[in-house]
Amino acid sequence: xxxxxxxxxxxxxxxxxxxxxxxxxxxxxxxxxxxxxxxxxxxxxxxxxxxxxxxxxxxxxxxxxxxxxxxxxxxxxxxxxxxxxxxxxxxxxxxxxxxxxxxxxxxxxxxxxxxxxxxxxxxxxxxxxxxxxxxxxxxxxxxxxxxxxxxxxxxxxxxxxxxxxxxxxxxxxxxxxxxxxxxxxxxxxxxxxxxxxxxxxxxxxxxxxxxxxxxxxxxx
Length: 220
Description:
With 220 residues, the chain is of the alpha+beta class. It contains nine helices and five strands; from the N terminus they run H-H-E-E-H-H-E-H-E-E-H-H-H-H. The chain has helices spanning 2-11, 16-27, 53-65, 69-76, 93-99, 137-156, 168-183, 187-201, 205-213; strands at 33-39, 45-50, 80-82, 104-114, 117-127. It has a five-stranded antiparallel sheet with strand order 2-1-5-4-3, with helices on both faces. The longest helix is centred in the middle third of the chain and has 20 residues, at 137-156.
């Protein structure tokens, strides 16, 4: 698996982490999507790689709603396995509602650990239907273990080719601070306002953050 990743990454103009996500769909053929996210201190997610455009859109739902299996795996430091996402409305109401159009059923999300610290999540998606005979758990764990290394390589190489949402955590943090001052609320409350508006309008939180910072949207 590691040799295959090396060969693909060297032949590709994409980042190593995106290459790993694409490789995961071959290694785990029952998976229909995969993606990697990192999180800031407030728990705001940012997708840094995905197997394809659909996987990226699905992964960004966690950023928009502030909840989901990836966020749970990151917070707990333990894998999260969901056999039927439609049954998780009590646990993640906003996430389940927002992801419904994508027909995602089974989700595996594993924490990404670097130097003993959980820095992100690696999530595998499967379309709605019967639970497959399924993804090989050891292979999924091996892939998740490689993510920290590929992200380090991408960072060292500059990360310019990553299919990430360019809003960046910095933009969300900046907008939260701006909104906190304008609305006279705490930064956590300002972040909640950003998430609520993003969810209500179906936009990415990074795009909303950019508009707030530019004075194009007033959430007070």
